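User: Second chain of the day. Same drill as before.
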Amino acid sequence: MSFYGLLDLSVWQLILTTLVLTHVTIVSVTIYLHRHSAHNAVELHPALAHFFRFWIWLTTSINTKEWTAIHRKHHATTETEDDPHSPVVKGIRKVLWEGAELYEEAATPETLERFGKRTPEDWVERKVYTPHKHLGIAILAVVNLLLFGVHGIWIWAVQMMWIPLLAAGVINGIGHFWGYRNFECADNARNIVPLGLLIGGEELHNNHHSFPHSPKLSRRWYEFDIGWFWIRVFQFFGLARPKGVRAIGLRIPGKREVDLETVQAIANNRMQIMRAYRKDVLEPVLREQKNRVARELRPLYRRARKLIVREETIIRPKERRSLDQILEENELVRHLHDKAQELQQLWQRTSLRPQEKVQALLEWCRQAEASGIKYLEEFAADLRSYALRPAS
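Assistant: Same format as last time:
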């Protein structure tokens, strides 16, 4: 064996090999740990699932039950003191640079018991992966030295930092701090970039928090989720079966009756509906109103288009001041803000009985249609047309 290992690769071949190896790790995390284990959004063939589990043990020392439990807890407690890794609560610097440590701190027996259900408990998990969780990365170091020689040291180092930095740090940190939002989910999740290539599609974090049980993370035509690409490849070979991708609901042209199906359909489609409210009602009204106010007030109207439909609990103090200012100065915008809040309460108020929700939605539509605001009237008519469809 030479000083450069059994393979004796060139520098560019080493770089390409490292990128391929780390990509396999990212794919294993996003498809197996995240979409399959934590959210049950895709079924995997046992052979493929075990390959992913073995590869994660070998390259990251991550335990399936621990990761799954902590991620489920994150969704159940997002942006609260109980959230294992919220940059809103703990600070962006801590989550970005100490993401792996936060995972270790969160892996308490109580968390594993409550959120770690339906994770592997077979012989190899009990006898190898769990009790010897660090053995895999030790084996990987030896294999790297044999294959790549002295270069195996830096390749192993890159593999060791790949998930802690990109997944535990960037996704959990930046993904809840900076970026754009397609949907106003009830937390601060953001899409970092529209092309989910480097971190397996997890860059589309706002989309994921809006539709956590969807195996596909891209939602707009310009977004690309490479994790979904690999799921479709595995599906072609009979190794994966994605579950529901679309929301359970559709619009039926000509439907005017508000019934229980209407309420259930808009609750299932609530993220798309609030996005439509912003695009079809708020934005055209705000554009018209902006042209009628003094120039120095126009930036307020630009900022207000998303704040009006944002979850109240995650509006920052500076944003709150901007929103309050425009609501005080413009009665029409305040009315649209109030209507948005009333609509959101339809699926937030779990204490309402089904028939009470039907009556609340019917009254909302009646008031909207009598408002004299063309965009709001058209939106109410669209709401009436929603009905359920079978889950795909």
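The beta strands are 42-44, 195-196, 224-225, 240-242, 250-251, 386-387.

User: Great, on to the next one.
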